[in-house]
Specification:
- With about 325 residues, the protein is α/β, with parallel strands linked by helices.
- Helix content is about 35%, strand content about 20%.
- Strands 1-2-3-5-8-9-10-13 form an 8-stranded parallel barrel, surrounded by 6 helices.
- The radius of gyration is 19 Å and the shape is globular.
- The two termini are about 30 Å apart.
- The relative contact order is 0.17.
Length: about 325
């Protein structure tokens, strides 16, 4: 899918020129906890929605293994997104990211169209390539084919979710019928690249509404953004493509606590966090998804503090 869907309202709420929006990654749980309390996560999702966060990010972790650092038994993303679609009212729902290489692209397209319909157009399909070789083997895939699978599956998903929603199978039997994907989504579902999927930044600029990457130290992220802007200007001159990052946040109870780097993010009080986010906005980052650490403070307190003191600095009506 081309990124023409970038003009959609839900995309503009998450990624817009010269603005920075803030989302949350689910589940919101203390580290070390493995079992997801679904009732609690539904409650927190509704709290984030009413508090004014712009997006909820849902991960796709098909299988757990002892050598994978995340022990959480993540819910199936499509089931979870379907539930959130009817639990929330205005917040964007984003898959961060569906493992495109390990799922059949037509199943992905069908599920994406369904979530977009249930959420009344609030779904953004984030797609990634996966990076665990043993998981590829478990699904009967060759990790060496990851780059090709990502591009080939993206093409099929994009075609199925386009305005025509035509399914053109790779086949030689010309007598076979053409198919269409139903139900029709309210609008073509926007596709977002999460990570590079083994593709060039120029490829991502041509095919996605934006590029979501993980947190890096400021100088490195600034170089990353400049590379992205150059690719956008070269590949789709005159068009907007968003740039975002996922950041781990340990929000200190003391509002004046300075920002201290931690793995993939910061420990900071709210005043320093505003400075960090403002610097990212000035750099050119359009969206930040916060992965909250909950060892010292409950999720409710952090969500409410961010909503009262941080979101108003960045979210315009």
């Amino acid at each position: 899918m081309s990124a023409g869907g970038a003009e959609q309202a839900i995309v503009r709420r998450v990624m817009a020129p010269d603005r920075l929006s803030i989302g949350l990654t689910l589940p919101l749980m203390p580290s070390g906890q493995e079992v997801v309390d679904v009732t609690e996560q539904r409650r927190l999702a509704k709290l984030a929605d009413s508090a004014g966060f712009r997006a909820l990010w849902i991960r796709d972790v098909p299988l757990n293994s002892p050598d994978y650092p995340d022990p959480v038994g993540h819910l199936d993303p499509w089931s979870w997104l379907g539930a959130l679609a009817v639990e929330t009212r205005q917040i964007a729902l984003i898959s961060g990211a569906i493992v495109l290489t390990l799922r059949h692209p037509l199943h992905i397209a069908k599920a994406a169209a369904s979530v977009a319909t249930l959420s009344e157009g609030r779904f953004i399909l984030g797609l990634g390539s996966g990076d665990r070789p043993p998981e590829f083997a478990a699904f009967g895939k060759d990790v060496a084919e990851r780059r090709r699978l990502f591009a080939d599956h993206w093409r099929v998903v994009a075609k199925a979710l386009s305005a025509s929603q035509e399914i053109v199978p790779d086949r030689h039997d010309t007598d076979s019928p053409d198919f269409q994907l139903r139900p029709l989504a309210p609008e073509p579902v926007p596709l977002l690249a999460v990570g590079s999927g083994g593709q060039s930044v120029n490829w991502i600029a041509r095919h996605a509404i934006g590029w979501m990457t993980y947190h890096r130290e400021p100088a490195q992220q600034r170089d990353r953004y400049r590379m992205w802007r150059a690719a956008v200007e070269q590949s789709v001159p005159g068009e907007f493509r968003g740039f975002g990052e996922a950041m781990r946040l340990d929000l200190a109870a003391d509002p004046g606590a300075p920002a201290m780097p931690i793995d993939l993010g910061y420990r900071a009080g709210r005043n320093a966090l505003i400075d960090v986010l403002e610097a990212l906005r000035e750099m050119g980052v359009h969206h930040v998804s916060l992965n909250l650490r909950l060892e010292e403070r409950p999720a409710d307190a952090i969500i409410e503090e961010l909503a009262a003191h941080v979101l108003p600095h960045f979210h315009r009506p």
